Amino acid sequence: MTALLLAAGIMFGVAGLAALIRIIIGPTNLDRVVAADVFTATLVCWMGLWMVANKDTTLLPVLIALALFAIVGTVSVARLLARKEEDS
Amino acid sequence: MMRWTPGASPVLDVLAIALVMLAAMMSLAAAVGLLRFPDTLQRLHAGAKPQVLGVIVICVAIVLRSPSWPVVALTSLVVVFQMLTQPIAAHMAGRAAYRTDGLHGELIILDEMADDVSAADRADKP
Question: Which of A60, B22, B25, B47 sits at 20 to 30 Å (Cα–Cα) from A15?
Fold first, then answer.
């Protein structure tokens, strides 16, 4: 059980690292926003893994907050980029 | 930090671990797609999978590990909010990507948006 959980944790870690790499190299700002969204989803999955492993539901409000507010960054950046395009 | 504690029944525990592994594989696949795909729209397509399905699977695993009604209520709130907000975010990002040329035109087989955009342009002009 512990080995499987460790493997899942490593996979989430690799996924988060790949999202971070995409945030760093992403050619456009939109790529960075999409990667940041994926990073947030990976973070949610990591907290879920922690809760599954420890049989502990302390972090559930954090999950709700992340699920609610992950949209704000994406939508604001997307609207900002669209407006810039209309101006130019 | 992470310590395994046995749950209600071994069957539920094994099921929860299997769901967590499924979410981990989806997350990994999304990350690989995020790194390897050539343009923003395809990266969006790869990244949107674990954002809804992975979170749902993880929430089911949490409920299987600690089965009680308050946990069911909170995890279903997480799932509902995720399913409400992620399509909007993906839609906005895809729209902005289309408008700022975040896509390789030669990779697109059928571009139905182009007709609508040109029709709207023609309607704008007096």
Answer: A60
